[in-house]
Amino acid sequence: MRPALPASAPDGAAVGTLAPARWAPVLALAGLHAAVSVAWVAYSLYLGELLTRAGFPGYLATVILTVEGFVGGLIEPLTGALSDRARSGMFRRFFLVMGGVLLSSLLFLALPVAAVGARPGPASLVPALLVAWALSMAVFRAPALSLLGRHARPGGLPLAASVLTGAGALVGAAAPPARAWLLSLGPGPTFAAASAALVVSALVVRALERREPAASASPAAPRRLEGWQARAGWMLLAVGTTSALALRFLLAGLPRVGAGPGASAETITTAFFLGAALAAVPVGRAALGRVGGGPVTVGGLAVLVVGSALVTRVDGAGAVLVVAGLLGAGLAAAQNGLVAWSLCAVRTERSGLGLGLLLGGGGVALGAFNLVLSVRKPAPESSVLAAALLYGLTLLLLAALRRTVRAHPVG
After folding, report:
1. pTM, to two decimals
2. Is position 8 within any domain?
């Protein structure tokens, strides 16, 4: 397997693009990312029902999501950092990936069975199984997806990341219309299909990675982080938290604030993610040669700030759907750039840690958002305004991160 990208400081200069003949592993990683998204859609659909079947109160779902979010925010950076240090034998990177995938799949299959059991008995384990499943998903995500950094130079990472962004957005667009069908299947078949998709996609990724030419020498252990790199890591965690929290507030408010005749909440959500899916690759191509996406990433965040702030003033079903699609396009541009930045901002041989920090911020955002919901569900107008403010804060944090990295080029 080829070593990680050469260490170099991200900046705005044009650099190498996607390496030739490396699209197959990138597409495989996109398939794994889509399978993870499908599993989370299924989990969200059945979380309350599983707790009710097992005899637990429905409000426990909010508690579970809060715990999962904050603990996952710790696990993602840790497993990402561990994958950077993995060499060979049982502690190689794919021990984390395949171990996490197999564990999460087994737990997913066990959940519907335990939920119909007796209390005391298997049903009593349902809350613990739910938390264990979510944490097992956090174990392998950063080690697996950080492999993206092996298949593109820093300037080509926004385009490579766009394939992952598009795959996840397609799942998000399909989720609202597929909701009724998935619920008609029941948790057993739905979880079994999601588990099979996870295992198959992970095996495909592993098979393609094993076909890569072996490195001429064992990669050196990642060097100890300098002070400024540790600060950059904290900034990356903050960027991940604010951007993910903004997205949660946007998705909580946008479908409700724009819903009306001809534009249901489900249709608006589908339009939002469809806009992201359609725009992902074009905006990724537009960002080629700019590490972290450059002005394309900034432009995407600016669209999200302005669009979220002004969406309450939009009237008419057609206009609402167009604005939702444009906001989705802004999300795609921002997401491509943030993933690209996470893979090389701290240091390129620390791509697992960088992506783990970004994803860990998403876990912190999940916990914080559910804490807000446990107190009071915000009004739609308040949700989209909070999204605009948080995306604005993300812009400021990203600017500070860029200045920090550019001031300390890595030799």
Report:
1. 0.89
2. no
